[in-house]
Amino acid sequence: MSHRNAPLTPTGRLRLARCVVDDHWPLRRAAERFQVSHTTAARWAGRYRLHGEAGMQDRSSRPRHQPRRTAATVEEQVVRLRQEHRIGPLRLAVRCGIAPSTAHRILQRHGLPVLAACDRATGEPVRRHERARPGELVHIDVKKLGRIPDGGGHKTLGRAAGHRSRTNGVGFAYLHTALDDHSRLAYTEDLADETAPTCAAFLRRATTWFAAHGVTVERVLTDNAWAYSKNTWRQTCHQLGISPRWTRPWRPQTNGKVERFHRTLLDEWAYQRPYTSDTERQAAFSDWLHWYNYHRPHTGIAGQTPASRVTNLPEQHI
Predict the structure, then answer these.
(1) C-alpha torsion 101→107→109→110, nearest 10
(2) Cα(80)–Cα(56) distance, rounded to whole angstroms?
(3) Once rounded to an integer, what is the mean pLDDT over residues 115-135?
(4) CB of 2 closer than 8 Å to CB of 9
(5) Distance CA 310, CA 120 (A)
């Protein structure tokens, strides 16, 4: 790629070179015509004589000889340790006796991605997929969240008092979420349990909610929890015209979009500030979910909002 301030592009270089070589212009006349120095004109004319049109392209600025480059045996050791132990540049540098920056450059040279972009189980680069249209696949999962006793939990009262408040038996909230794979549009309910009838009823309401937002649910993806393996779930999917899908055992990454949504939900709503009661926290949820769907830029979809990826969704421009 040419430098942004370069006076000539590869096409301009070719025109200059042809004027000098093919049309026999004097160098200074060609340099004046293309507004470059005569030495620049001579360089491109010389490359054209030797290599033709191919010589007009940019060349790497890397030196031909690099006597201080890390030895090949050290590079092989870095790559082997990374593949075997899945460790980062700092730990690789300690084991191989090199600088962390050197280890980082070696990993880059060999095309090894950062650990955050690799699957923890296999070490292979994570392959990210996205469905082509809203409703083609909806991820469903349940997040279990401790309820807050009246007066507040440990975030309000401190660890000791908050721990004693657990004896009040306030129980847990089961946050059932349906999230569209393409748009990331999310629908969440706080329910009392995660039994098969509860999950099936949630699916019916979620399907209705998505339909009201212009999204027809075609497939749903869940983990292999007991409630999703019962006939109640299968029959409900069949009645709604939805094809059920399940993740592979011990592979929660397959349902990673809804898992990531629950993490965002905890960070930006459930644990965002101290609440004095569960009622107060629940009262803040509808506003947060509306903000998530309509106003919050989503990094996984290039900074767009989920609503912007659903055609003609009401309130998406508010």
Answers:
(1) 170
(2) 39
(3) 77
(4) yes
(5) 33
Q: What does CATH list as the number for 138-309?
A: 3.30.420.10
Pull the structure tokens for residue 159.
């660890």
**From edge to edge, which strands make up the β-sheet containing 186-191?**
186-191, 172-180, 138-146, 219-222, 243-246
53-112 tens-digit pLDDT: 999 998 888 888 888 888 999 999 999 999 899 899 999 999 999 999 999 999 999 998
Place of tokens 């349906």: 178
Taking each helix axis from N to C end, the angle separating 231-240 and 196-212, rounded to the nearest 10 degrees, works out to 20
Note the pLDDT tens digit of each residue in 80-95: 999 899 899 999 999 9
Report the chain's C-alpha Rg in angstroms: 30
3-state secondary structure the chain: CCCCCCCCCHHHHHHHHHHHHCCCCCHHHHHHHHCCCHHHHHHHHHHHHHHHHHHHCCCCCCCCCCCCCCCHHHHHHHHHHHHHHCCCHHHHHHHHCCCHHHHHHHHHHCCCCCHHHECCCCCCECCCCCCCCCCCCEEEEEEEEECCCCCCCHHHHCHHHHHHHHHHCCCEEEEEEEEECCCCCEEEEEECCCCHHHHHHHHHHHHHHHHHCCCCCCEEEECCCHHHHCHHHHHHHHHHCCEEEECCCCCHHHHHHHHHHHHHHHHHHHCCCCCCCHHHHHHHHHHHHHHHHHCCCEHHHCCECHHHHCCCCCCCCC
Rounded Cα distance between 98 and 278, Å, is: 53
